[in-house]
Amino acid sequence: MSMAAVLEAGILACGINSAPEQLASGPNKNCRVFQVQDKKISLVETCSTLILRDGDDDFQKVTAFSLDGGLLAAGSSHSLHLLSCPSLGLACAPVSTEQEIYDATFSSDKLVVATTANLQVYSLPGFDAGAFEKSSKKGKQKAQSIEAAALELERTLELPSSLRGSSGGSYRSVRQHPTIPEVMYTVVNTAPARTRSKSTPRQGYICKWNTKNWTMEKSRKVSDRGLTCFSLSPDGRFLGYGSSDLSIGILDAKTLATVATILKAHEFPPTTLVFNTTSKLLVSSSADNSIRVVRVPDQVGSSGWGWSLLLVLIAVLVSIIAFAIQRYLLQ
User: Fold this and answer.
1) What are the backbone dihedrals phi and psi of residue 123, each rounded to the nearest 5 degrees, phi first?
2) Which residues cross the membrane (predicted)?
3) Which residues are within 8 A (CB) of 183 and not within 5 positions of it... i.e. 6 or more apart?
4) Which among 33, 109, 154, 212 has most CB atoms closer than 10 A?
């Protein structure tokens, strides 16, 4: 259902619901950690992180590692567990929200959870993943470590007024910049007002945030339909997105300028996309059982593309003028 990896350590975390016959005799071991080594994938540990409401089904829709790989955030619709890795012992009490959880990201000392209504910023002061690993194996000390490591809600960021639309909007994704601590990105799908004839589809925006003062610096509408998936390249240069209009696109992370757009990339809306480790390829997939691989252009940046387009227009204009002068002289 969701996946994250720590490449340097060869660790892979997934949300995978247990088989029906296993659910009949025990809890859903939905959170699983694997070791990838010598071209083999081995199961390391499993645990249950789902807190069901009124018997409803749920799944692990959020899986995210901290920057050092020592902590793992596993979130379902209305709860998020912070686990030590790879033992999957609880690092703190689970976070519960009334709003639906869609994503989470780590900085060096913060955990930001994206819900439909707001961004919840939690402080992680003094979190020592190694200490949690040791304490989680000591039984009686486990409860004490959980109590001592309770997450502190530092602030809540509501949807910016400029993006609420006439009927509101919602966050769909959040990503911390991998090399610039004060930069963060979010996806917002707005809900314009309905007209008498028909409802207006959601519009997809990508926003750039300054986490020093927690303000939105830039926003860009990238689709006339809602965005379904979002990714940030490992080198921090590119943003990738998929839209319910079946397209995928790449933006310059610094300026939010368009780098590339692929229309009708899939027959169904893309469900996930990710850059490869060198940030040279963007891979997307869809419920139509297709995978698409797009090469990221070598030359990016709004200024470069803008000047290229300007030069082309000037060349066309000069050609038209020269042709007109030539015809005039021949008359």
Assistant:
1) -85, 145
2) 305-325
3) 176, 177, 208, 209, 210, 211
4) 33
CB atoms within 10 A of CB 174: 24
Separation of alpha carbons 204 and 72, rounded Å: 28
Strand, coil or helix: 72:
strand
Of 157, 96, 152, residue with least CA distance to 125 = 152
The contacts found for 131-134 with CB under 8 angstroms, 24 or more apart, are: 132/70, 132/71, 132/84, 132/89, 132/91, 133/70, 133/84, 133/87, 133/89
* pTM (two decimals): 0.81
The structure tokens listed for 236 are: 């921090």
d(C-alpha 97, C-alpha 208), whole Å: 24
The predicted pLDDT at position 36 comes to: 92
Q: How far is CA 144 from the centre of its chain?
A: 33
Dihedral (CA of 179, 233, 241, 107) sign? negative
The C-alpha atoms of residue 191 and residue 117 are separated, in whole angstroms, by: 13
Q: What angle do CA 135, 67, 9 make, to 5 degrees?
A: 75
Q: Sort strands 152-158 and 118-123 into parallel, antiparallel or unpaired.
A: antiparallel
Please give the Cα distance from 298 to 245 (Å, whole number): 26
Given a cut of 70, is residue 294 above it in pLDDT? yes
Q: Where are the domains of the chain?
A: 1-90+127-149
- Rounded CA-CA distance 179/237 in Å is 10
